[in-house]
C-alpha cells in the first residue's frame, strides 16, 4: 500500500464578506511526482451540515493510486444560500489549478466528486463549465470529468406544496419565490456539448435520494451526446463510500476505474 501525505487546513478561499477563510485538506502520494491527475472532493450533509474529512477513505484510496485529492469545505446553507456554496466549490477547483505546480498536478486533468449534497456540487460545477466563477477569476473552474455519488441532479419542477425544506433553505425560498434558483442550481439545466464525461454512482436501495434521479440525469447526458456511465450498486444505500459496508470498496473501485479511463 502506497503512503499518502496529507496537508491539513490549507486556506483556499478568503471570501470578502466572511471573517474566517475557507480551508481544504490535500491528499497526495507521498513519493511526489509531476503532472498527476487530481480530484476536488465535496462532503455531503444536505448543504446544511458536514465538513471535509467525510470522504477520507475514498481520498486515501485515490491518493494511493496516484491522484492528488483536494477535500474542500464550503459555506453551509445556515450561513449562506445559493449560489454562495457553489461559488465556494468552484473556488476549490480554481485553487487546485492555480497551485498545480506546487502539488505536481496536471491542471488539464482535474475532476470533481462528492457525496449527496457534495455530489450535487460536483455535478453542477462540471456541467456549469465555469458558470459560477467571478468575472475576474484568473483561472476557470472547468473540469475534465465528474463522478458524483448519491446525488440530486434536477431541482426543477418542484411543486410549492411538496418542496423539500432542505432545498428551500439551500436555495433561499420555495419554487414559487425563487424559481430561477431552482433552475440554475440544477445540473441537468446546464448540460450542453461542453459537459465533461460523468460517472453517476448510486445505490439501488437509496431511500433518501432514489436512484431514479441518477438514471434520469444519465438519460439527459446521453440525449446531449455526452459521455456518461451509470453505476448502480445492488443493495447500496445512500451512504455508499461513506458507511463501512461491503459496497464501499466497490464504490471506491468504480470511481477509481472511471477516473483512470477519463483523466
TrEMBL record:
The BD-FAE-like domain, residue ranges: 24-217
Natural source organism: Halosimplex carlsbadense 2-9-1
Keywords linked to the UniProt accession: Hydrolase
Gene Ontology terms for molecular function: hydrolase activity
Protein name: Esterase
Short name of one Pfam family: BD-FAE
Record bears the keyword Metal-binding: no
InterPro entries in alphabetical order: AB_hydrolase_fold, BD-FAE-like_dom, GDXG_lipolytic_enzyme
